[in-house]
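Section 4.2 – Deliverable D4.2 (structural model, holo form)

The reporting period included a commitment to supply a predicted holo structure for the target in complex with NAP. Inputs used:
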Amino acid sequence: MGIDRVRWGIVATGNISTSFTKDLAVLDDAVVTAIASRSQDSAERFGAEFGIEHRFDDYQRLIDSGVVDVLYIGTPHPQHYSIARAALQAGIAVLCEKPVTLTAKQARDLIAVAVENDTLFAEAMWMRTNPVVQAMFADLAKGVVGEPMQALADFGFHRQQLAPRLLDRDLGGGILMDGGIYPMTFGYMALGRPEEVKAVGSLNEDGVDLSVAMAWKYASGAVAALTCGLRSHHPFTASVSGPEGSLLLPGAFHHPEYYVRQTASGDERVDVPVHGLGYHYEAAEVMRSMRAGLVECPALPHAATVEILELLDETRRQIGVSYPGDDEYLGG
Ligand SMILES: NC(=O)c1ccc[n+]([C@@H]2O[C@H](COP(=O)([O-])OP(=O)(O)OC[C@H]3O[C@@H](n4cnc5c(N)ncnc54)[C@H](OP(=O)(O)O)[C@@H]3O)[C@@H](O)[C@H]2O)c1
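Output (C-alpha cells):
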C-alpha cells in the first residue's frame, strides 16, 4: 500500500477514543482525518480538540466519506460488530476495541468479511503490543523460567461511580467482557488455549457480572487462575512461572512499566522504555500491516481474538451471563 500518512477515522467520542486519538499524535505517519459521533455537537467538540477536518453526526456517513484508510472503533462492545462489518465491506481497514464482538461467531464472521474484502481487521488488544509485555514474553519463549506451568492474572477495581455502560446489559455490561479479557489474554499468551475451563461469578440483580474467577487446565498439567471484579480494588498483577522461576508484571499488568525476573540468581527488575499512553504501539502495528498488504496484524492475531471469545462464550455460559442477541450469535 503506497500511503505516506495513513488516514484514520475515529468512531465515537468517549473515553477510549479520546486516549487513542491523543496517542496517535506520537506517530508522524498517521493523521486523523475524520471523527464520527451520534451527535454533531460531540463530533464538533472532538474535532476541534484534535484538529480533525471531517466531522460526522453518523458513523455510516464517515464510512461512506472516502476520507479514511482505517477506522478505529471506540463504541461500547455491542455496537462494534455492525460498524466493523460495514467498514470492512467498504474496504476500510478496522482496528476495533476489545472485545471486538460479544461472541466468537460474530468475530469469525468479521474475519471472513475482512478476508473476502482483502482488508485488515484487528482487535485493539493493546496489551499485546506493549514493549514490556513483549519483552517479558520473549524471555518466557527463551526458557528463562523453563516450561511455564502456572499463570496468575487479575484485573479489578472499585469506584463509587462506575461508568454506566459497565452495569448495563444492553451495552455489554459486566467486568468479564470489559476487564476479564485482559487476564484471559495473559493466560492465553502464557500457556495457550486451555483444555478445560471452570468459572464462577457473582452477578447483580440485572444479571451483570461483578466478580468472576476462572480456572484453566492444560494437558501438560499447567493451570491458570484468572480473576476480575468491580467490587474491590485489585492488585492488577500477572505472573507466569516454571521450574526455574517466575516472570512478573506489576500493576497495571496490561500496560506495565517494567517486569521482574525471579530466578535462582535473585529478583531482577527489567526496565523497557515505553512512551505515550501505550495505544500508539497497536496503531503502528496496524499501519505496518496495512502497508504490507496484510488482512491480519501479526501482533494482534485473529486466532487469539476468536479463541478468547470462545473462552468468553463458555465462561458466560457457566456463570449465567447473557446479552440481547445471544440467541442469534452464540454457538456455531
Ligand atoms: N483499550 C483500552 O484501554 C480500553 C479502555 C476502556 C474501554 N475500552 C473499550 O472501548 C469501548 C468503549 O469504552 P469507553 O470506556 O470509551 O466507553 P464510553 O466512554 O462510554 O464511550 C463510548 C462511546 O460510544 C458511543 N456510543 C455509541 N452507541 C452508544 C450507546 N448506545 N451508548 C453509549 N455510548 C454509545 C458514544 O460516542 P458518541 O456519542 O460520540 O457516538 C460514547 O461516547 C468498550 O468496548 C471498552 O471495552 C478499551
